[in-house]
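Today's session is about reading a structure prediction critically. Students often jump straight to the picture, but the first step is always the sequence itself: look for stretches that repeat, for charged clusters, for runs of hydrophobic residues. Only then move on to the predicted structure, which in these notes is written as discrete structure tokens rather than atom positions. Here is the chain we will use throughout the hour.
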Amino acid sequence: MSFLRCLAVACFCLLAPLSCLGAVAPYMQLIGAPGAAPFRPGTCDSNAPPPVVRFDADLGPADTYRYSTAVVTPYFFDDEGEFNVIWNQDATLFISPFMPSTGAQALAVLPLVSPANWYAALGRVPEHTEIALRVAVYDAGGKAVAASRISWDCSTGTILSREHRGNALGSSTFALPVVEYYNATLDHYFITWAPAEQANLDAGNTPTRWTRTGFSFKAYNGFREGASPVCRYYIPPLLGDSHFFGRGTQECTSTGQKNPTFVLESSDFMQMFLPTTGVCPAATTPVYRVFSNRGDANHRYMTDKAVRGQMVAKGWLIEGDGPDAVVMCAPQ
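Below is the predicted structure for this chain, in token form.
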């Protein structure tokens, strides 16, 4: 199937039900800038830099699948220069040629041309226009078998929607490192997998300094079969000015009920496996948790029992299930 014919026929199926795709798809998911709500602001005109868009993908061996990017908007301009909404349809600003991709890639940066190419015929779109990036994946015969779409406000960069169709697994299969930080001023620990948060902490863009401890474990940043969501609460200053990571729906719900002043930042910040009577599934690593037992509540998460012993010696309390007090289980 030619590229132009794909635009008229195959690409129509990209936003249709999975039955339209009719094939076992490869995996592709646009995730934007992980851990940060906005793209770069100000992508409404041709002078703007391209947004940084990351993706997880597994498109198999060389020449098995190809992909193409398209920049679209739900608006079009009429003869008077005004724009109107096209319901259930995108107006295409730019489409790239086919691009090859080999093997599995985690948090890779998607190559994008500049907005000057997007707006070659327009120059710009109105402020706060929704702009979308769509990546379509094609098999060797040119049939569209998967797609991922992410949209944002062109003025603020705020992500407005994400959609994935035809993916074999539906969301990320990559386990990402959850990095631990320590703040000596507060005597607090903090963990995050999000690159944007890590970059902010590493750059020192915080009131007090956070440094990496050198410890980490892995987690999933999206749905994983058999895993459970881990929520993230912010504990307000009067109670600790820190964060709590609750494993599973039950602990997350009970934490919010018992602590109504806690702020639920995410009900699914990451996904981990849960132990059964304190025992982790095969091919996973036990994660332990200790509590500071102070007015400024803080928790520390670790996989090293010796480190846990050091914290207990300082007066921190062990939390967890079973004889080994395991809280959750990290993928290896």
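Discussion point for the tutorial: The chain has six helices and 21 strands.
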